[in-house]
Amino acid sequence: MMKRIILIAISFFSFLLISSCDTILGPPGSEPPMPQQGNPVPYDMFVEGEPSSNIISMKGGLFIWKVGDSWHVRMARLNIPNVVYPKDIFVGNVGVENGFVVTDQRSAKLPDEIRVGVNDIAFRFEVEKDVKGLDFSVRPAAGLAYCVNFDVRINNVANPEWTYIGRTMYSPVPMPLKICIRK
Predict the structure, then answer these.
(1) 19 & 62 share domain
(2) Could you say which DSSP state residue 86 is in?
(3) Are residues 14 and 56 in the same domain?
(4) pLDDT at 40 > cutoff 70
């Protein structure tokens, strides 16, 4: 009798586990496959749209967004209570998978140091008061999908709490950050 109760309980919990996975993950094929390297931001909607410039200057940190085919990266002085640095130093690299970087050198907020490659940008910002940043676009190499990897450290710390994406200011968990786009 005890074996039968245990067998029924195991069957019941197995059924719950299998059926709940479909509920949590959605039906098979409902979400486009994402590359397995890193932890990519799942949807374009998180990346699309500029956050308020007032919030950028008040909150401080790393802000990344995309409007159409143009990417925008802005760095603003951190507003951390009881922590005083003469300036915040942002050092980073933006790498593109399956595409080529096209920069806009006319940006008035260019970093203190910048190196642009075929599929990456390396930069260093020293932010005292103003917001600094750079703009670029990506030309996909083949097909309509590409990924952009952001590896940025603020005062030598990679902290996702200081990183905000898109108009919603979504704060990603991983750093470095991988964002994949499908056109």
Answers:
(1) no
(2) S
(3) no
(4) no
How many other β-carbons are positioned within 10 Å of the β-carbon of residue 63? 24
Cα dist from 90 to 2, 60, 158, 170, 178, whole Å: 64, 12, 10, 20, 18
How much is the pLDDT for 148? 92
Task: Report how far residue 90's alpha carbon sits from residue 125's, in angstroms, rounded to the nearest whole number.
Answer: 5
Q: How far apart are CA 91 and CA 89, in angstroms?
A: 6
Residue 29: per-residue pLDDT? 45
Q: For residue 24, how many C-alpha atoms fall within 13 Å in the half-sphere facing its CB?
A: 6
Among the listed residues 73, 67, 48, the one whose alpha carbon sits nearest the alpha carbon of residue 150? 73
One domain for residues 155 and 70: yes
- 25 with 46, same domain: the answer is no
Whether residue 117 sits in one domain with residue 162 = yes
Is-contact 163 174, C-beta < 8 A? no
Q: Do residue 81 and residue 129 come from a single domain?
A: yes
| 23 vs 89: which has the higher pLDDT | 89
- What is the H or E stretch that residue 19 is in? helix 2-25
Q: Are residues 102 and 161 in the same domain?
A: yes
Q: Give the number of domains in the chain.
A: 2
Which domain, by its residues, includes 16?
Answer: 1-31
Over residues 106-129, the pLDDT tens digits come to: 554 555 788 888 999 999 988 887
